[in-house]
Amino acid sequence: MPDLTVRKIHPVIQGSLLLALTLLAYAPIYGGGFVWDDDAHLLNNVVLQEHGLYRAWLAPDHGVYYPMASLSYWIDHRLWGLSPKGFHATNVLIHALSSLLIWRILLRLRIPGAWLAALLFALHPVNVESAAWITQRKNTLCLFFYATSILLYLRDREGDGPTTLTRGAAITSFLLSMLSKGAGAALPAVLLLLGWFRRGRIEHKDFINSLPFFAVAAVMSGLEISFQYGDAIAAGTPRPEGFFSRLAGAGWVAGFYLFKALLPVQLSFVYPRWDINPSDLVTWLPNVGFALALIIAWRVRHRIGRGLLTALLYFLLGLAPVIGFFEFYYMTYSLVGDHYQYIALPGIMALVTGGGAYLLGRARSYGLSTSLGQRIAIATGTLIAALFFTGTLQRSAVFADSEILWIDAIAKNPSGYLPRYNLGLELQQRGEYARAAGHYQALLETYPDSAEVHNNLGSVLLRMRRADQARRHFERVLEFEPNHTEALNNLGNALEQLARLDDAVDAYGLAVQTAPGLIAPRLNLARALKKLGREEEARRERETIRRLRAQSSTD
Asked: Are residues 483 and 530 both part of a single domain?
């Protein structure tokens, strides 16, 4: 079997080339800004507030616990403030360093084409969502420490370093990975899998050595699940479907990621959310396909080697936390997202180069010359890398601008709620009310009962001095949620604009009743009462406002 690894080039040059090509492929993002919740993750992150480092680690007050990601934000903030350029550069650099680690791991595992596999991972367009989206710092850090742990563990098992030191460092690195994000929870099983790949069996000492990793995975996974269920998704159930729907959907999720790994086209920030019907036998075909693939890979392991089965199992283990059995808030909008296969993807890239080497070896047995085989390998690898480089260059340009990102997502998922709503919200905040109204109206065609869309559309129409149309949307919100404070306040604004002051006072009064501590509805109520000549009532409201402001300043 030919080795696709470039042996004639010094490793330092190979590593430098891998690093340079990765950084270059992401050139458009360095001048980009924040997208979606990037700024919120920074401005609202406890680590950037008073006593932030302590709170991020020991007293988190937000819905997630990713202290390593918070620490990296803190360092970035000290280096270049809140400039998005520095944060983007750090993300891409971490991604590039992870690719270097993957290369060294594959070399230790003697995977043919290790450098090419690492390069394909580094340049893969699917990874743009992880490397170019600042919010996914947790993802890039997770893989960096995950790969570091594997590399240290392999070094320990080979006996070419101080056993106690390397084992402790590997466990520590895995802990740091889990403190970045829980996506690496399957690493203990991966370590056992790699032991089987190298020796054809899992030895007793493999189980013993993996126990600390399983302990870390159990504790940190429990912590992450408690945050997800206790805070991040406490308001609703992203996956109301039953067990069998989730089980059938797992095959669709894994199949989707495998397809995007092999053919990264029509990538989108938000994919359509599938309806999984477990009573339809066709729904189970992806599960059957994966089961057959694993059975075949097991049956042919003595003939073609253990690489195929190892790659497939690594891929599925990497997807295990996101395949559908554990809930997270994003599932409200879609069951899949490009960044969720970040840790699983190296297995498929190793399978591509290893499989290519195997096929070339078979071709040699039928008379293909070694030199021609090498030329075919180099030409094919170069072509795929060039296509990936171009795809990443184009995709990272999309992530450089929030509006472009949402427009791209809408083009690929026209009926999707999240991209159109967020684009409307962004346009509304920028004062482009006519464009925002167009997107909200388009959303209502698919989601006619969305209270937040009706409320936002009414707010935009109110800004456009179309108060009567706005009023109807606020009243629609109140049909769903009679105590919706913002809609009541907005309705009061619309009625006041229509010179219906008595009705406006009633609406403001209801808003005050639903949220007595809010100042904005009381200000509006005091103004409307004054216009009606009800000076005493207006004076009482102003006194209440002064008292609330005084309390707020002392809190």
From this structure: yes
Domain containing residue 522: CATH number: 1.25.40.10
Count of beta carbons in the 10 Å neighbourhood of residue 100: 20
In this structure, are residues 37 and 130 in contact, taking their beta carbons and an 8 Å threshold?
no
Distance separating alpha carbons of residues 292 and 552, to the nearest angstrom:
64
Chain-centroid distance, C-alpha 433: 30
pTM, 2 dp: 0.90
| DSSP letter string, 93-106 | HHHHHHHHHHHHHH
What token pair was written down for 82?
């809140």
Q: Amino acid identity of 94?
A: I
Is 409 among the domain residues?
Answer: no
CA separation for the pair 97, 323 (Å, rounded)? 27
The percentage of residues in the chain with a pLDDT greater than 90, rounded to a whole number, is: 66
Res 235: pLDDT: 53
Residue entry with tokens 């295990």: 320
Where in the sequence is the domain holding 100, given as residue range(s)? 11-403
Average pLDDT over residues 358-373: 79
**Domain co-membership, 353 together with 466:** no
Q: Does one domain contain both 72 and 215?
A: yes
Which of 55-59, 380-384, 396-400, 476-480 is the least confident region?
55-59
Best CA proximity match to 349, nearest among 251, 252, 258: 258
Cβ neighbors of 45 (< 8 A, separation 6 or more) are 52, 56, 62, 70, 73
Given 403, 423, 456, the domain boundary residue is 403
Q: Where are the beta strands (DSSP E) in 435-522?
A: none
Local structure of 510: helix, strand or coil: helix
> What's the rounded Cα separation, in Å, for the pair 241 and 181?
25
The Cα 434–Cα 466 span in angstroms is 11
The two three-digit tokens of residue 420, written as one number = 């159109």
Q: How many domains does the chain have?
A: 2
